[in-house]
Design brief:
- It is a single chain.
- This protein has helices at about 10-25, 50-55, 105-120, 145-155, 170-175, 190-195, 215-225, 255-260, 270-275, 275-290, 315-330, and strands at about 1-5, 30-35, 35-40, 60, 80-85, 85-90, 95-100, 125, 160-165, 180, 205, 230-235, 265, 295.
- By secondary structure, the chain is α/β, with parallel strands linked by helices.
- The chain has two domains: about 1-60, Alpha-Beta Plaits (2-Layer Sandwich), CATH 3.30.70; about 80-330, Aldolase class I (TIM Barrel, Alpha-Beta Barrel), CATH 3.20.20.
- The strands form three sheets. An eight-stranded parallel β-barrel has the order 7-8-9-10-11-12-13-14, surrounded by seven helices. The protein has a four-stranded antiparallel β-sheet with strand order 2-3-1-4.
- α7 links the parallel β11 (about 205) and β12.
- The chain is elongated, with a radius of gyration of 21 Å.
- The chain starts with a strand and ends in a 13-residue tail after the last helix.
Length: about 350
């Protein structure tokens, strides 16, 4: 159920409605937008809320028909803006998250972080824990990697996003990360979704390798139903019969999600195509499709990378990409600050 408050409803009116719902054993979730306040009561389906409808300040009560309740535009019509430090994701500015696939060494990561910052990037990405297809591949540095990322944040001022791979690791990663990433293979790891949902920290949820858009939104519902409303969705390519690229980047998911949900949408072209020759084209296409940002991989020496070198941009290519996205962002009504530094 969605309880729509009148535009002139007071804080006392809102508090009274919430208190009444809680006394009846429900878990109300208020959402404040430009057009007013609504209260989501997802555990009240089929219950008689006639007494609540008569309370001062209540305009109307309507059912939510979609499978995903809290992530839908029925619950919140205005786009969600996730604030990470000074960065707003889902607002007017197009956001770039960049860095190597994995934190390999202190020098490798700090060098990359400095270049991302000088080139106009907003957020540093990097993997401290790397679940890989092969058990013999580089698995990441663990907490040492998180410490290196924290050092890079201290030096550059940029927030950091990194993946958490198990419920037991959530407290550790939450201590270091500004954004907790849930990877494609863990999109339907419900224990992990619930653990991250209980954190009051931004989360980037990647679409599963063979998951539908509806399944992605329902996974986000797990996060929000556990109390976390700072959720971002990431399209990173899905498994199809096509083998020319690592995966198939489903850019149509961007407008579909924006129509159905208020959550920000990020596109990861690096993991989608798997070949550096195609990454920039798909990144620019993501801007034009209406994405709120991209997550892209860059490395000082891609040929020497311990993880995903073939899809990583070298530093000059990253600067070229940043410069080329700006006019596209402006054409679709987005701001994008580009510094552009070729000195490294």
């Amino acid at each position: 159920m969605i309880i729509v408050m009148k535009q002139k409803a007071t804080l006392a009116d809102l508090s009274r409605v919430i208190r009444t719902l809680e006394e009846r054993g429900f878990h109300p979730r208020p959402s404040h937008g430009a057009t007013g306040t609504v209260i989501g009561v997802m555990d009240a389906a089929g219950d008689d809320l006639t007494d609540v409808a008569l309370l001062p300040g209540v305009d109307q009560i309507t059912p939510v028909s979609s499978k995903f309740k809290l992530v839908s535009r029925d619950f919140q019509s205005a786009p969600t803006v996730v604030n990470v430090g000074d960065v707003e994701i889902g607002g007017d500015e197009f956001v770039v998250m960049a860095g190597p696939c994995a934190v390999e060494t202190r020098d490798q990561y700090l060098t990359t972080a400095r270049h991302v910052a000088k080139s106009g990037g907003h957020i540093l990405r990097g993997g401290a824990f790397k679940p890989r297809t092969s058990p013999y591949s580089f698995q990441g540095l663990g907490e040492e990697g998180l410490q290196i990322m924290a050092e890079a944040r201290q030096e550059t001022g940029l927030p950091i996003v990194t993946e958490v791979v198990s419920p037991s690791a959530v407290p550790l990663v939450a201590r270091y990360a500004d954004i907790m990433q849930i990877g494609a293979r863990n999109m339907q790891n419900y224990a992990l979704l619930e653990a991250v949902g209980e954190q009051r920290k931004p989360v980037l949820l990647k679409r599963g390798l063979m998951s539908t858009i509806e399944e992605l939104l329902l996974a986000a519902e797990y996060l929000m139903s556990n109390g976390n409303n700072q959720v971002m969705l990431c399209e990173r390519g899905i498994r199809t019969f096509e083998r020319s690229t690592r995966n198939t980047l489903d850019l149509s998911a961007v407008p579909v999600i924006r129509e159905s949900s208020h959550l920000p949408v990020i596109v990861d072209p690096s993991h989608a195509v798997g070949h550096v020759a195609y990454v920039a084209d798909m990144a620019r296409a993501a801007v034009a499709a209406g994405a709120d940002g991209i997550m892209v991989e860059t490395h000082p020496q891609p040929s020497m990378a311990l993880s995903d070198g073939p899809q990583s941009l070298d530093f000059p290519a990253f600067v070229d990409l940043m410069e080329s996205m700006r006019p596209i962002a402006e054409a679709v009504g987005r701001r994008m600050k580009v510094v552009g530094d070729r000195s490294d």
